[in-house]
Design brief:
It holds the Pfam family ABC2_membrane. This protein has 265 residues and is mainly α. The chain is built from 14 helices and no strands. Helix 3 packs across helix 4, helix 4 packs across helix 12 and helix 7 packs across helix 8. It has one domain. 35% of the residues are buried.
Length: 265
């Protein structure tokens, strides 16, 4: 059944054009109606950085080198995951017209929505590289290892897609999942090494970086961008395995529950 969904999608013609068109429409609806446009994608992490910097560096004295950049890259990864999952919980309802009145595979709706979010991610990532390499002092500059961000982002994208599929299909039968996910992501945020020194995080929560795929992606993103080294391959393998397993479960739910979404919603 899972293979049938993917096979049906790959057999369709003009997939890339249709996906890119949907992503552009989603992107324009999100940013172009605002006067600051894409800058809105940058303003949120910058405001978060200012708040957490004062709280954790100035008041709580975390003493993490280049703490602003440390926060910046962590929040870029986190915000992509959060926006991609919370923004798609009701997608089978809000975009019902796309699969009801057109010959569009439901999976394309998810993929195009996350592609739209990807534009904001890479814009923020470019701003991070400029900030880190031009404004931070006494740091290890980014090297060719920064290209590892591409497979890390693919891992993040698959994970976000998988969770989106799971949440939105559960929403078909249990609308309370929206509130449950809001509480869970608040907990997950503080159980990820976004605000804390990595050594302290690993000491307080041993092996949790292997249980929490978002934590692993953030850790490896900092390794390749701020430490100028390759990612932790064992951690990367764990994270990618989580993403693939969850994606299989998500496509299973899409086949079981997504087919009845139009009538139930």
């Amino acid at each position: 059944m899972i293979i049938a969904i993917l096979t049906d999608w790959f057999r369709r013609s003009n997939k890339s054009e249709r996906l890119w068109l949907l992503a552009k429409i989603e992107f324009k609806l999100r940013y172009y109606e605002n006067k600051l446009g894409l800058l809105w994608a940058l303003i949120k992490p910058l405001m978060d950085i200012a708040i957490y910097y004062v709280a954790f560096q100035t008041i709580m004295k975390q003493n993490i080198p280049a703490f602003a950049s440390y926060l910046f890259i962590g929040l870029i990864v986190w915000n992509f995951f959060l926006e991609s999952t919370t923004g798609t919980v009701q997608i089978l309802n809000t975009k019902k017209y796309l699969y009801e009145y057109s010959n569009m595979n439901k999976l394309e709706i998810y993929v195009s929505t996350l592609l739209s979010n990807s534009i904001g991610f890479f814009f923020n990532f470019l701003m991070f590289l400029l900030f880190y390499n031009l404004l931070e002092k006494n740091i290890t500059y980014s090297t060719i290892h920064v290209l590892w961000i591409i497979p890390l982002f693919i891992n993040l994208y698959i994970l976000a897609l998988a969770v989106s599929l799971i949440l939105s299909n559960i929403y078909v039968i249990a609308k309370d999942i929206t509130q449950v996910w809001q509480v869970f992501t608040s907990l997950l945020f503080f159980l990820s090494p976004i605000l804390y020194k990595l050594e302290k995080f690993q000491e307080s929560l041993p092996h949790f970086d292997y249980l929490n795929p978002i934590a692993g992606i953030i850790i490896n993103a900092r390794k390749v961008t701020m430490q100028g080294t390759h990612p932790d391959f064992k951690l990367f393998l764990f994270d990618f395995t989580y993403a693939i397993v969850l994606l299989m479960f998500g496509t299973f739910l899409l086949n079981k529950l997504g087919s009845k979404a139009a009538e139930k919603l």
